[in-house]
Amino acid sequence: MNDLAPLLTPEGRALLDEVRGTAPADELAVATRLRRDHPAPLVSAALAQARLRQRAVAKFGTEDAHRMFFTPHGVEQSTRASVAAYRAARLTELGVTSVADLCCGIGGDAIALARAGIRVLAVDRDPATAATARANADALGLGGLIEVREADVTEVDTSGHDAVFVDPARRGGRGRIFDPEAYSPPLSWAVAAARTARVAALKIAPGVPHEAVPADAEAEWISDHGDVKEAVLWFGTEPGAVRATLLPGPRALRGAGLPDPPVRPLGRYLYEPDGAVIRAHLVADVAAELDGGLLDATIAYVTADTLRPTPYATAYEITDQLPFNVKKLKALLRERGVGVLTVKKRGSAVEPEELRRKVKPQGPNAATVFLTRVAGAPTMLIGAPAAV
Predict the structure, then answer these.
(1) How many CA atoms lie within 13 A of 89 on its CB side?
(2) Helix boundaries (H) for 140-195
(3) I need a labelling partner for 305 at 20 to 30 A (CA). Which of 138, 227, 287, 316 fits?
(4) Taking the model in full, what pTM does it have?
(5) Closest residue by Cα to residue 158 from 204, 189, 134
(6) Given a cut of 70, is residue 129 above it in pLDDT?
(7) Residues sharing a CB contact under 8 Å with residue 40, sequence separation 6 or more, in sequence order
């Protein structure tokens, strides 16, 4: 897997076409058959690449995923294509025509930038990763816009580019790295590199502490179909601005610096803000838009008396508010014939699957249960998605 060269030969590419879509249960039989005519290491490499391509479909789409090349780490850490395309579009709007993509990985962001017409210098110090990025640029016909360089990003001169994009490694031998200074390279180095360019974007973990955001940066949290994907520090845009961007769309909520929303009694509707809104600390902005308040000062649920459409939160109509009690919940669900139960929690230690096992929902109807706190007290709220 550290040498893509055999897979880039006509024989290797033909094998990749042949093993496309091979189910895990069929791999042994397929490998046995193919090894009669092809070297065993090449067959193994093709099957491993086919597995990675199948996993990559969720991020890159079927057409691109089955043309690209991947490493196991690259599949996990690469930017989702929709997010990379959004960022490339924003850089284009900022007048950027060339980007130094530092810590480029397998080239997901470089591909999106090149497709937006931006010239890219893609840099990664790992030989296998750089080779994969180069193979991907060629496979997608973008080699003319993407120069891949195997080098230490801290030693690369970026002065000839309009913008810098840095995606530091946030995983180590023991899993995720939460301290920004333990990134590779550290966040402080990435910030210093960003400040040398007219425009810069630093991809960081969405859980980054807000106090770690430099005063001269704009902080953006991005979600895709409701799943928070990343945070980005922008330089050369709006210093001090905070925004939540929701894809598809994009829809962007820019923070107005509002104070915390008031705590109020449960209204008819409960709104669950998008994860990017919560991470960006913009729940107050959504509450103001909905003329609502919080059920609890520490919980990011907004309640209101009226139903208003908003892209930044999902609305539920609440029918019941009960103190936390599994027996009462089980009896109520049985009475209403609820067999399809969605359990959401915020501020509760109870696991959704554990609750489902205990209440044993049965029947033709559906309901949503929120396990949360209301004015500090463990509470169950029962309702259903509201038709806006």
Answers:
(1) 9
(2) 187-194
(3) 227
(4) 0.91
(5) 189
(6) yes
(7) none
